[in-house]
Structures are given as C-alpha cells and as structure tokens.
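It is worth pausing here to work through a concrete case rather than discussing structure prediction in the abstract. The textbook approach is simple: state the sequence, then state the predicted structure, then interpret. We follow exactly that order.
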Amino acid sequence: MSFRQISEIAGSAMAAQTVRLNTIASNLANAQSAAGTEAEAYHARKPVFAALAARGGDGNGMRVQVLDVVQSTEPLRKVHEPDNPLADEEGMVYYPNVSPVAEMTDMMAASRAFETNVEVMTRVRGMQQSLLRMGKEG
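Step two, the predicted structure:
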C-alpha cells in the first residue's frame, strides 16, 4: 500500500469523523428543545458510514464515505406539562430523543478516531521525509 493510499484512507476517515462530530453537536444543541407535536420535535440524527474500495477496486485502497445522515427511530420523550405554552390539547410536550450522556460518549469516540487518523497522517509524512533524507545521503 502506498503512502498516497494510506493518506487517502486517513483523510476520508477524518472527513467522516468531522460529519459525525457535527451531527453530535447538532444533537446536543437541540437536546432540550420542546415541541407541541411529535412531527415538530427534533429527532436525533446519526451518520451512516461505509468502507468503499478506492478507484479501480483493486483492494489496495479503501476510503470511508458518509452515505447519509438519518433520523433516530428511538421514541421521543413525552412529558405532561399542561402549563407549557407548547403543550398539546392533552397537556403533552415532546422533547428530542437525544441522550446527552450517549452523545458525549460518542463525541469522545469520534474525537479519538479523528486524532488517530491525524497521527497516521503525521507518521506517513515522517516516513516520507525519512525516505527523502535517505535519497539525499545516498
């Protein structure tokens, strides 16, 4: 596997983790938003990733691609708050299906995955520079 292929894999993984982190940030930002109906309530979003063969499909190069960002199918939180101006006729208010604890855990995992790929890119660059130095010495 070439340095270029390694860099493409790590770069695509970093881009995917960026989407994941942005999605998590959106979920956390909307975690406490309230709505008067299920349809109006914020639904947590999750990115869907796939590992795809790079150009040519020779098996030597892969890349990570974000296929879609989908809404979570977990049920929304319904809370009886008849005094809330957003409450429906039954006094129910709908809150997102976002678990801040789960989102923070996912954020830590995404951040570590991103950092790992940064480290891969750094090591590839270091190996390339070592090869160039060897070429100058020889």
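Step three, interpretation. The two ends are 24 Å apart (CA to CA). The longest strand covers residues 62-71.
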